[in-house]
Amino acid sequence: MSALPQPTISLVSPNLKSLPTPKTLLKTLSSSPSLTHLKQIHAQILRSNHSHSHTLILKLLLFSPSLPYSLSIFSHLPHPLPSLSTRFVRHLSRSSRPEFALFVYLRLRNEGIKIDRFTFPPLLKAVARVEGLAEGKEIHGFGFKLGLDSDPFVQTGLVGMYLACGRVLEARLVFDKMSYRDIVAWSIMIDGYCLSGLFDDALELFEEMKRANIESALMTMYASCGCMEMAQKLFNQMAPKNLVVSTAMVSGYSRHRRIEDARLIFDQMVEKDLVCWSAMISGYAESDQPQEALRLFNELQSLGMRPDQVTMLSVISACAHLGVLEKAKWIHVYADKNGFGGALPINNALIDMYAKCGSLERARGVFEKMTRRNVISWTSMINAFAIHGDANNALSFFHKMKEAHVEPNGVTFVGVLYACSHAGLVDEGQRIFASMINEHKIAPKHEHYGCMVDLFGRANLLREALEIVETMPLAPNVVIWGSLMAACQIHGETELGEFAAKRLLELEPDHDGALVLLSNIYAKEKKWQDVGELRHLMKERGISKEKGCSRIELNNEVHEFLMADRNHKQADKIYEKLDEVISQLKLVGYFPNTRSVLVDLEEEEKREVVLWHSEKLALCYGLINGGKDSCIRIVKNLRVCEDCHTFMKLVSKLYGREIVVRDRTRFHHYKDGLCSCKDYW
């Protein structure tokens, strides 16, 4: 374990006529100042001789936007109270830098400062997060010397720590010594066995739990671990089924995407509390059924129940997934009116929601009004710029984030690299990737290497992309091969694309994207027999290409369209409008691009297939029903094809309309015949 970092503390003169009171300083701290202002407050605390105030110092530690600065403050405290140390360790154990909690422990040990039993659980949680087995063993030994190894909370922490470090045997030894085991301890141990593939041991421990006659706890544990068959069996045996048990079943099924089973139990419940409603709404939000989540939220309101923060986060997530701006605005107003506006997690979620609903301005507005920001706030804003193709602002905010002494994490770098990739900033992307490793000491994961493969691939530097795949220290996964495969598809590199698709299929034989790409490659080469064999294989396995679907929101109602869809009540008018638009576009040289239609059809049939794409139908619906100057916003589940991209650009110019399309990976803002992606997508 390295020595505690000792950055210099800036003592900025407060320039005040009179020294502030502790109450004034506390109020100032509660407004979540920037690092510069926090340093000034710190200087005022020292200057006005309030550094003995436990409450002030704790606030200073917890509200600092820079973890290294918090650590430096703590290192200068002469004799920190155990309660202060514990709170700080807990704060660090939950932060983006859990290893800092170990630095605090090191100082406490070296200086002989008292450590009580409340410090050990968060400390062990930090060890588990960094998988620091050596440090964990040392802490275990120290706890033994203090006589804390018999404390049930410390023991539970030790079990979790050993399991996180892959030491199942040591975890079980601690577990067996526990004189009292609550449901958390049982769950952690059984879950550890399951994650390690030791299912017989998990079942044996389950039988031991059954003998303890705690059926409801067992059922809850199985639901939380995803063993829903066993949870259901216990649930059916139990009578009567109380609220806690039923809620656990709803939560378990929802979390593991068995949404119909969850809803069945939910509908059978006579009594439902907010936890149960939240579990069901969250289940819909996370199971690609955002409209159901919002419907259920409306039902919750109609019953006069007030949502909590957990519910609101699920609702905001559902709205983000749906991509409907008007609903997003309403949810934002609702959150503010009901007292959620000051909550950091809510504001972070609102940034993401507005970005995914196509409004960068509103996302940025939320960010600018926030009195407190953390790494998630900055990362959400960077990701917002990235998916909208605004690489300049993404990079600018990345540098501002570092200037504010907020340490970026691995997710931040995914967003920045994504921005570089979709803007063709190869050199900048390489520099940022190097800084992540050398400056910020973050080991790249698959998603980072995937971004680099995508960065080179989009720029048609396929040899460099392949070199990344071949030299990366991790075994290439589906994401890596998928990135290379997609790049080959964009640039028509069939040989390497076929190679990447086959490698991907070795890892995931039923991957629809790889099978479709292979089929398309064979179709381009007119190898119709190979195409037929592949499609027969897909049919046998029940694999189908994901169908294109586009959504448009008008007058608080969401309308969905599939390719060649004629189910809409205004279908006749939509196709009439489409014919009119096509006629107008042909006058300025438009001709349908059928290169994306890789089926054995006559050219005229191919043109019809292209012209009936779902986003064109949604666009025409918007032209018919939207206001003359209103922006048309469309959400598409697949990547926009070349023909639709050209089509949207021309319509934006001829009809004088702004069009925003969110496809699978990014946004396209069409205006005056141009697209925000600059035709690089």
TrEMBL record:
A Pfam family assignment: PPR_2
Domain of life, per UniProt, equals Eukaryota
Q: Where is the DYW domain?
A: 589-681
Species name: Theobroma cacao
Which keywords fit this entry according to its UniProt record? Answer: Repeat
Q: Repeats (PPR): which ranges? A: 182-216, 242-272, 273-307, 374-408
What GO terms are given for molecular function?
RNA binding; zinc ion binding
Question: What processes does the entry annotate via GO biological process terms?
Answer: RNA modification
InterPro entries in alphabetical order: DYW_dom, E_motif, PPR_At4g14850-like_plant, PPR_rpt, TPR-like_helical_dom_sf
The record's family statement is: Belongs to the PPR family. PCMP-H subfamily.
The record's annotation in PANTHER family points to: PENTATRICOPEPTIDE REPEAT-CONTAINING PROTEIN
Q: In its UniProt entry, what is this protein called? A: Pentatricopeptide repeat-containing protein At4g14820 isoform X2
